[in-house]
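quick one before i forget lol
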Amino acid sequence: MAEIGKIVLDSGWLAARSTEVKLTGTQLTTTHPPSGPAAPWMEAAVPGTVLGTLVKNKAVPDPFYGLENETIIDIANSGREYYTFWFFTTFERKLSGNQHLELNFRAINYSAEVYLNGHQKVLPKGMFRRHSLDVTDILNPEGQNLLAVLVHPPDNPGTIPAEGGQGGDHEIGKDVATQYVQGWDWMAPIRDRNTGIWDEASVYVTGPVKIIDPHLVSTFFDGYKRVYLHTTTELENKSSWVAECNLNIQVTVELEENVCLVEHLQTQHVSVPAGKRVQYSFPELFFYKPNLWWPNGMGKQSMYHVSITVDVGGYGESDSWSQLFGFRKIESYIDKKTGGRLFKVNGKPIFIRGGNWILSDGLLRLSRKRYQTDIKFHADMNFNMIRCWGGGISERPEFYHYCDIYGLLVWQEFWITGDVDGRGVPVSNPDGPLDHKLFLLCARDTVKLLRNHPSLALWVGGNEQVPPPDINDALKNDLQLHPNFVTFDEGGQSMQGLSLESKDPSQYLDGTRIYIQGSMWDGFANGKGDFSDGPYEIQYPESFFRDDFYSYGFNPEVGSVGMPVAATIRATMPPEGWQIPLFKKQPDGYVEEVPNPIWDYHKYIPYSKPGKVHDQILLYGVPTDLDDFCLKAQLVNYIQYKALIEGYSSKMWRKHTGFLIWKTQNPWTGLRGQFYDHLLEQTAGFYGCRCAAEPVHVQLNLATSYIEVINTTSEELSNIAIEVSVWDLEGTCPYYEVFEKLTVPSKKTVPIGEMKYPKTKNPKPAYFLLLKLYNVSDYGIISRNFYWLHLPGGDYKLLEPYRKRKVPLKIISKVSIRGSTYEMVMHVQNTSKKPDPKRLTYRNNFITRQDSDDFDSSSVEPVDNGTKEKCDARGASLFQRLRSHFSRGTEDPVVAEINGVEEGVAFFLHFSVHASKTDHKEGEDSRILPVHYSDNYFSLVPGEVLPIKISFEVPAGVTPRVTLKGWNYHTGHTVF
């Protein structure tokens, strides 16, 4: 008897262009299977796309490098047959009596013909739907099975106008497919339009009865002390006889490492008629004071393990299903004061600070490891929401798994955009895809795929557009809320406390999350669908703080620059792409940046806005080369995004309920709107965000010069103080002030007092400001914030000669290693002056947030349907703890000193990790990526010490080298 459950088919695939294969699918899967990667067959990327396979085999150049995408033939010119491909693999699976095998494809773009052992099955169209084929009767009894899949591109791939545009000629909108593939103002066209088996392929063994799409819902009563878990599932009897079943549900929670508690174990008897599907709802399970799931910054992401098994009389265990589940309730309504949509989680308001997300990779080279890095980066920036933009994909369960783990709420849109579905230039078709029934089928299937994830917060019909009326009405009906999840007035009063005799909420398609028809409707932007998001260009930092910057309560898209570091430019472009922009001064005094053609192709967005914003890079002087330009761009990135978040946070609840930055990352090597690049190297903007979006934050209002404290937590801050110190370029402190005996209520922004410098006598034209918020009781630092500032109308050109100032540093490194994973703590000290004992925050007692443990969840994988994870006899863990345990370092701490004799601020320090190679070639990118830093692009005033945590994995056989650079340390120093 074969073991029940899933086997993923993610290796051993071959692919070939259909026009180069002179065999039928029947021949390929009977008499003439390909024997290996010999022409025209090549190793295939599954999951993946045709273009991804071609790139993998170097049959085409890397479309993300330089201008190479222009050398790859577009489907509009080649015809659909050119990107119609065969995919072939084999698998073994022997069944015993009453067992069944399904061949599953979690998504294919766009349609396919499947051949298994000579038998044909046709898969219908649609990029966002699951396909399940019962192939029990056509399995090879000898064990080996031959599988060939002929994948066809979208029916309407469209053409790419010479001028580019948003979604090309918009033809892709006629299909139920991703729309970014025709190109956007941040993305070049994807030549095959993502044709391929782009998501998981698998075979799945069950007994006579199969579990299908269980739905888990929790309802709350008595102030979240009393909770009920509701569960409904479908059962399919594949046999020819009535199946008498014992249906079991078990809920388990891990109390501490290797100790788990079975909260509930319940068995119900169900009869399933022969060849039929039935829906069954368990009696609700009661929990008293359960551990709740909270978003990032509000608390822990507590998860329970829910497993369902079905035992069939005369057979035994027939199928199993399991899921990590978080008890939480999300509500939202339009706030009367601001007009913005306000979200509550578990009854507490949450100020939304998040980002817009496209997808990990434009060629759909998706992986759990990449998802983990992506989502952890967002959590590291202290974001609490990710918006999955409608022109991208409905994200995969692995994406949602890590959002569950790291506490990122998700706004998931369906596949409608304003540019392609009713607006744009030329005006596009407003009636959506040609096949409305297909759209709705894909939407309902997507809901079933994702609805059990606590991170999923809301469904949205489309980006800057609503779906056609019939689709919109159907989605409103399908996604109607169960009464327990309805907020019936603008004051946020919920109908909590309904009778448990009302319809079981798990019988709804979803029933727990709101559906909003479009991204600029119903509490987002101006709420009426008019273009009222943005802006998307460089701004003066103080502009973000002004009340006239953005008029509405919740901004779903506000964007800016995103230049990566110089090493990324060199790694992704040939030398002609290393030329920095020309700075053309206009008659009115503004400067226009003219980028080189490769930067222009990669959608570079300038650091100037002629007529409105003077060039922010030139504030530091004219860049001399690529390294100088990119370093100055990082200075601007840091200021720009920190000011953006601080400006919105300054008006929390008074004017705004939230905002989402356009956008957090690029699915290719783009040069705009990103906090980390496609190679996973963070920009300085990443750390500007991390600082500004911390749950408790001290900041300077750049418009009013008032010191403010932002408290987004549920706890009042009391007995706190703020230390304000100004430092000049000579290393002296001309201004020092302490605000004491402060109290800041929960969920409030409080102005503390005016920062009087530079209104004092003889202010310096450029200076540094350090703010520290600390507990008076133990001088524990809660928030630290560093600025570089200039006098009104001035600039930062004095920082250029400051680069020659040699400020001494001392770095003490401690390292722990487990396998290929390194975890380091770097204590970086500015030794140009001894700490002043009168300034007690120099004790550097940094407080760790209770919910901000720097998890390493490399071993935490999504729990797949069909897997079984139970406590064994020794009490082994249901799922491994997030905290990795490292072997203790056996060596003494490593001490590195950077000599210098001058006092001053060690400015804009940043670490990087490299591979030490004896055969290193000049120009080769030696960086190890990704790396997680607790902070980077930081500055230290004289005498100050800052601990920096660094974690990363190294390839086999590689020794890492940690380098420190900075404004005063431009040559770089190896510190480990």
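fyi DSSP finds twelve helices and 47 strands in the chain.
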